[in-house]
Design brief:
There is one protein chain. By secondary structure, the protein is α+β, with helices and mostly antiparallel strands. It folds into 2 domains: 141 residues, no CATH class; 139 residues, 60s Ribosomal Protein L30, Chain: A (2-Layer Sandwich). It has 9 helices and 8 strands. Helix 2 runs antiparallel to helix 4 and helix 2 runs parallel beside helix 5.
Length: 334
């Protein structure tokens, strides 16, 4: 009787002493592995909410497994599914970020391309405009050259009938002149640029002297040229003072040309005061342009010498000077 009671008392104690937790099911092991992968990947940054839900599900599955709950397998599969979902959403969010960055870079590249194309088109239009302007200028120059040739041809046709020969001015003078024209009286060259004077002065500037040096050099081969020098002033002084100052400026130019070997007999000077201004006298720049001298060189046709039967000139001597045409010019000869 006593032995039977001892055996009955020891059995519950043995059972209690041998109590143990069941092993994790394969589903729970898979859930733990899936969660570990998600937690070590981009889910912690890109899908933190989904990762937290997966962690709670895994804890519930672990508790169910320890308690030997009959639904522990379902809890483990749910935890695994949520861990996989968190991992998938994290990579999806990462891919979307990368795509957004790529779209932004693409948009920047497209905008840069549009800017480059627009800049190239503007340059192309500017180039076309410049080419059109250049062609227009070339056409105008051709028209002027044709008109000049036509006038010279007419003058050559008129000269033999009048017993005269047209003399051509030196090329250097033609290039140096500010403008020129050919008429019945010959070829007329006008020099005005670079021959300005200081205020209330009649002294040539170094720039004017350089210009006159070149004019004098070109005149050496045209001894019969008629040289007219007009002096001008701005409108700041009185009419009498401006007339006197303009005459002094014209005389200064004549004296300088004479010092460079140009015969004084072929030079005429005039003081025109403040008349014929090139610019308005209301500004300093305009007044500076009007304080000037203008040199007009006329290369007249010469009388053709009478030819002997042998083809040689009859011995007529060329004219030694030029006759002053009528007008209000003031001769400045010796």
């Amino acid at each position: 009787m006593t032995a039977i009671h001892l055996v009955g008392f020891a059995l519950p104690v043995l059972v209690a002493g041998c109590a143990w937790h069941p092993k994790p099911t394969p589903q729970l092991a898979q859930a733990q592995q899936a969660y570990a992968q998600a937690a070590s990947g981009p889910a912690a940054q890109n899908a933190p909410r989904e990762l937290e839900v997966a962690r709670d599900s895994l804890r519930r599955a672990i508790r169910a497994n320890r308690a030997g709950d009959t639904d522990r397998v379902q809890f483990a599969e749910l935890a695994r599914s949520r861990a996989l979902l968190a991992n998938q959403q994290a990579y999806t969010a990462l891919a979307m970020q990368q795509r957004g960055l790529a779209d932004q870079q693409l948009a920047q590249a497209q905008q840069m391309r549009r800017n480059i194309v627009a800049h190239a088109e503007r340059q192309h239009r500017q180039l076309e405009q410049r080419e059109a302007q250049l062609q227009q200028m070339q056409q105008q120059l051709r028209q002027r050259a044709q008109e000049q040739q036509r006038r010279e041809q007419q003058l050559r046709q008129q000269a033999p009938a009048e017993g005269r020969t047209l003399m051509q001015p030196p090329v250097a003078l033609l290039r140096l002149a500010d403008r020129h024209r050919v008429g019945p009286t010959g070829t007329q060259l006008v020099f005005t640029s670079g021959m300005q004077f200081e205020k209330e002065q009649a002294i040539l500037t170094p720039q004017a002297q350089q210009k006159l040096d070149r004019v004098a050099e070109g005149l050496q081969s045209t001894p019969h040229a008629i040289i007219e020098i007009d002096g001008f002033a701005d409108s700041m002084g009185s009419a009498a003072a401006n007339q006197r100052l303009s005459a002094q400026r014209a005389a200064a130019v004549a004296d300088y040309l004479t010092s460079r070997g140009v015969p004084r007999s072929g030079i005429r000077t005039r003081g025109l005061g403040s008349s014929r201004p090139l610019a308005e006298n209301t500004t300093a720049g305009g007044r500076a342009r009007n304080r000037r001298a203008e040199v007009t060189v006329t290369v007249p046709p010469t009388e053709a010498p009478e030819m002997q039967p042998s083809g040689r000139p009859s011995g007529a001597q060329p004219p030694s000077g030029t006759q002053t045409p009528p007008g209000n010019e003031t001769p400045t000869g010796p």
